[in-house]
Amino acid sequence: MSLTASSVEQPGDSEFHEPEGDDKAAGKVGVEGRSPAKLAWARFRKDRLSMVSFSVVVLFFAIAVLTPILVAAGVLKPQDSNQDLLNLMTGGLPTEGMSLAHPFGIEPGTGRDLLSRILLGTTLSMTIALSGAIITVIIGTVLGIIAGFTGGVVDGVIGRIIDLTLSFPSTLMLLALSQVVVDRMLDLGIPSGPNGAFVNGFYIVIVLAAFGWPPVARLIRGQVLSIREREFVDAARLMGASRPRIYFKEILPNLWAPILVYFTLLMPAYVSAEAALSYLGVGIKNPTPTLGNVLSGALLYADSYPLFFFTPAIFIAVIVISFNLLGDGARDALDPKAGR
Amino acid sequence: MGRTRKRFVALATSAVVAASLAACGGDGGSSSNDGVGNQEGQEVTEATKGGSITYLQSSVTEHLDPQRVYVGRDISNLGRLVYRSWVQFPSGTTDATEGTTPIADLATDTGTANEDATEWQFTLKDGPVWQDGEPITCEDFAYGVSRTFATDVITGGPNYIIGYLDVPTADDGSSQYKGPYTGEGQELFDQAVSCDGNTITYKFKKPWPDFPLAIASLRAFDPVREDQDKGDRSDLVPFSSGPYMLDGEWDEDSGGTFVRNPEWDGEEDTNRQANFDDITFEVGVEPETIIERLIADQGEDTTAIAAQNITSAQYNQITGDVAERAVNIQSPFTNYLVPNFNRIEDVKVRQALALATNRAAYIGALGGELASTPAQTIVSPDVPGHQPLDTFGSPEGGDVEGAKALLEEAGVETPYPITLTYPIGSASSENAFALLKETYDEAGFDVTLDGLDPSGPYYETIQKPDSDSDLIWGGWGADWPSISTVLPPLFDSRLNLTANSNGQDYGNYDSDEANALIDEALAETDLDAANELWGQLDQLLADDVAYIPLDTTNFYYLRGSGIENYVNSVSTSGYPDLGVIAVAEDAQ
Questions:
Q1: Which of A338, B88, B125, B365 fits a 20 to 30 Å CA distance from A179?
Q2: What is the pLDDT of residues B415-450, one digit of tens each?
Q3: What's the pTM?
Q4: How far is B427 from chain A (nearest CA, A)?
Q5: What is the ipTM of this complex?
Q6: CATH fold group of domain A46-334
């Protein structure tokens, strides 16, 4: 009894509380006594694909951080029109393809530099996806823990809310309500940002989170159902720990693995959701670039100017693939028993 | 011309304009693009009868009711297919003068006016019948125009003609005659429009010397038979007096088919050649798809036509054989921006906006020379009396330094915040407005682009006198070739401004001086003298920056290979003239 209790009091010892079997396995292997997190990291590093995708993800985060600085410094010029490089007799197609000044070419019609637009678009798309994923995971985790741990009526109510949210025609609502909700947000004092970019991006984030949390909540609830029967939870209860303490100090540390995996899988889903929504006319609008609105502007030119179409498409594809692979790798590393 | 017809032009989805095309022979940029034709080569030959035509359309036809239709494309098509009137424009002509000179249709001649043109008389021919064989009567004409007064039922049409007819108005400015459905004030209307046997007399409040032009340009004066009128339910049920009639029903979302009207007499109505056997309107096809299908030219699409501009992304596919089936002409349609006078009161700021308006970039984003040409006045080049003004800067525009200097003179704080409200459209029109913003921003403004759905909240928003828009997009083409159908409907505050709406005067422009000039010009019966006055008015509007001209749109159309006698007639506002078009023998 006392042993278990002491381990409960120091959950910070290890970042990841692996299921019991793992602890045993780790005990056998580890002469130096490595923590489960270290073990997971070791497993992760052994998988070459995961490491490659991890580096690509790091690269994209670097792009996302550096681009606004480069734009502010005037190195990247996403809004400057170079119409002198267009042939205005063929509907404004560029007279040249890739060049040193414009490595990805320029946009037909406007002559704006595509490299700058795609990089800035990456920044904004990643920001939207990241904020959306974080909010989704927070809502889903909190509600999942409460539902799983409390059980009974609370569990039932949250379960029905999940069902209700999942059965909403979310895409349709999102399209139909965009103008109304954005106007209401502006009334509430949410800043509009340059050309409405902030409030429109905020709307996307809110909507993605509002309709994205139920699967997270269900997953977490399932995990919590098994965790709450474990001895350290009983011990904490017996010692009179408060509900929030049990939720966040006892249970939450055991959930990092599924949360991390789910998070890495939400990111790519949200990047492509942003692109799809842009095509449907919701979200950040031209002239502020996102990967989605650059791509939807390029759709018409898939035939006549494929370079314009393929670069943003490839960017989205690479982001989605590398995040997905990263998510898979993380899952394998954190839960080796699941296998593939 | 009504706002409905202008909705889609700048959006490059479907060009909708009425009126004439004097400058049509001029180059719409076509000479330098290999093989693309203009109107010069278009002529009517002896055509084979028979065959079916498909008319591809992306935007819906909102009204088929003669008193409600106000979209140029639909006005032209219905006038050639199903509706006859007193007079019409000759078919198949690209000559500006000939194409806008009315010829007799159901009337024995082109009408007689009294000395000051406040009264017009037309006499009905003997013989023409409706699609059920009943003769068309003078009373049908009187009934037709009376419907316009029922403003609660007959919506969407050119309601301003109510103001022309000599029916007394009530205190609130509305007519004392409330239309045939309530019959209130019927005797007042009967005095203004009266039938004596086969002769009708229209009485007007003021001189209307070009009244026959209005009859031929609009459908509002066409006859309607009372027993066929079911009010709002008649909207999509045309009752034909012309060579074709609707087969079955018209579906608002998918269109319908017109077949030959057996009661129509081709010997008597020679202006409408009625060459093809039937025409099917395929509505709701995406603009890009329409052009792709016409480029592919397969199956039934070989006999397809469309009033659909080729999108700029597809320009480079118009080469070789395809280019021979394409035509590029200047439309009668001008796009412009209006500053909101309720919000931007300083004329220097408005002038700065005018100077910074980057027309070259705007047009480049729309697709360049083939898409449109810079405009230097709101009056389209084909309207008699058109005179380019240099008040708005160079045709290319985008004078950043000049605008900066003006803003400094005005002593306003920069960046000066501006909301630019425009109708959402294609990717290229989005880019065009983005580039306008770019140059405005450089000049010291801070522009927020406010794109709204033109079939939804756009007009609702900009017509509110207290709207938050500072700069508003508009598009206009003359109802008939006269400046009197351009400047007064857009800038006469007495016609437009009410407590709840600014009508077509989106900028809430209100000038006694301008109104006085309008009265003076409208009262002038000599055309040249009138145009002199219109020129003064246009200059006054330019000095006040009541508007900022953008561009004159081109029509860049494609047709199937089995189409013959394809003419973008002046008389059908540059739309394909269905009065002469035919299907080639080997395509039937």
A1: B365
A2: 999 999 999 888 888 899 999 999 999 999 999 998
A3: 0.82
A4: 6
A5: 0.76
A6: MetI-like fold (1.10.3720)
